[in-house]
Amino acid sequence: MSPHATNLYHKREWWKEATFYQIYPASFKDSNGDGLGDLPGILSKIPYLASLGVDVVWISPMFDSPQKDMGYDISNYEDVYAPYGTISDMEAIISSCHAHNLKIILDLVVNHTSDQHAWFKESRSSRSNPKRDWYFWEPARWVDDDVEGGKKRIPPTNWRSYFAGGTWTWDEGTEEYYLHLYDSSQPDLNWETEDCRKAIYDSAMRFWLDKGIDGFRVDTVNKYSKVLPFRDAPITDPKSEWQPAAENWCNGPRIHEFIREMNEEVLSKYTAFDGLPLVTVGELSLTPEPEGVLRYVSAKERELDMVFQFDLTHLGQGDGFGGKYDFVPWKLPELKRIVEKWQCFIESTDGWTTVFNENHDNGRSIDRFGNGAPEWREKSAKMLALWLAALAGTLFLYQGQEIGMLNAPEEWGIEEYKDVESMNHHREAVQLSESGVDSTRKERVVKGLQLMARDHARLPFQWNGSVNGGFSTGKPWMRAHDLYKEINAESQKKEADSVLSWYKQLLRLREEHKDVFIYGAFELLDPENVSTFVFRKHYGDKTALVALNFTSEPQPARGMDYMTLLISSYAKAKEGVLQPYEGRVYIKY
Ligand code: GLC
Ligand code: CA
């Protein structure tokens, strides 16, 4: 293979060329003034999405749920959360998407259910219930109590959960512990039990596929198979009672078997509304190695079409367990190497990749990778957009990204944050600070949350300059951003040089030059430069050169000789210099 091997052998597929747009139902559009986004709100905005030029709409969970984790805790797969609407509202959204030639995918959240799901209620009702083994139940361990004397009860393992604390909760009724990798209200389903798997296929998958959806975003896709029997993780965080234990529940021994079964029994029996294949994209955390990722996305394995890999989202985050919100400064070369790693991943394999820098679990990209200051936010939004639009892989945009939405202002107090993960990390940091175990922890975690909390992405969408940014006439469940008058879709629709207009233009350009942008091979230039990100994309004899200035200072621009300027994020590109946060593409045939 030549150093810039083109991916001519990468089979063209509709879902590789499509742009996906993620909707977070609670925060997209409220139709009835109760302060919460809803399905009629989404329905009213399908034409907006079609005009943006995206191809697939992904709706985050709108299923029935007690909303402990914003719908990622499902109490009934076959119903809609009532404040969002009804099943027939969903049917209307599905038809409207298809009428606008958009496909639609839903979140498949089947690592766990809510503790309010009928399955869990049954499972918990007695040790002999037929659904007992649909979840993981284990007896307590008893150890010497050095403080009180006698014996004390401890959980089956010392694992740390995602949202701080341990992974086991004691059930008084049946006197056993149940497992939850996330919140205690999200018990893990036991995929070892065949009846349980079959019920998942029927209820979470076939029910919605029969209604005509075109695929799934598969939540926490690599955690269904646990290492059994359960065992303690080694102590790597001596300050804590709870230890990172991913090797016990991530990429476990039967995971590939389970995903293949899901395909064979369910997905392979359906097509998208237009007869094309369904699409699946998995959420693949804690899998840093390309070989590990390839096992899920290799075309010949027929598991998942693609996955979200999280190297980029981890930039600036501390250790994923415990230290996640302990901000770690980073430099541009790290970002470039990560992009290179996942661009090159597809060049020598039959696996595909995804391109994204926002979703509902992260801070806004302008604040994390660009510059949210008033004079730079639009410029950096456009530069970041160009970065994504020129990369190989399937492009995913998150609601509000297309208008340059920002993180919540730093002045906002912690009481404006609502997310269970933010709350738990904050509470834990306060404890660690006050007890003197880690006296500056609180301060560090507050700073990390201000930059990276999941809450930032969940602020109401800014539709226009009216009260609450036009999201709701009532009191929104999360406060609307102070800047909705300056940053909103309506005013940007009218301005030819707005961030929104830029996104529309870039999506057309990406389509027009999809050979080089979507399928082209990646070549990183000047990797150690801490200010600019410059790369080439190659496809046959065609080359694109992408030059991005990640700073607020002008930077020298080199290497564009004999190439034609295709686009610049500034009205006037200057010879030999990249203006602050400018992005440019040159092309040569
Ligand atoms: C995924 C979701 C996240 C959720 C978690 C538990 O990571 O993206 O929002 O909290 O799964 O379901
Ligand atoms: Ca509503």
From TrEMBL:
Keyword vocabulary terms for this entry: Glycosidase, Hydrolase, Maltose metabolism
SMART domains named among the record's database cross-references: Aamy (SM00642)
Domain of life of the organism encoding this protein: Eukaryota
Keyword Hydrolase: yes
A GO term, aspect molecular function: oligo-1,6-glucosidase activity
Gene3D superfamilies hit by this protein: Glycosidases, Golgi alpha-mannosidase II, Oligo-1,6-glucosidase, Domain 2
Domain Glycosyl hydrolase family 13 catalytic: 22-458
A single BP term in Gene Ontology: sucrose catabolic process
Pfam entry (one): Alpha-amylase
PANTHER family noted in UniProt: ALPHA-AMYLASE FAMILY MEMBER (PTHR10357), MALTASE MALT (AFU_ORTHOLOGUE AFUA_8G07070) (PTHR10357:SF222)
Record-stated family: Belongs to the glycosyl hydrolase 13 family.
Name listed for the protein in its UniProt record: Alpha-glucosidase-like protein maltase
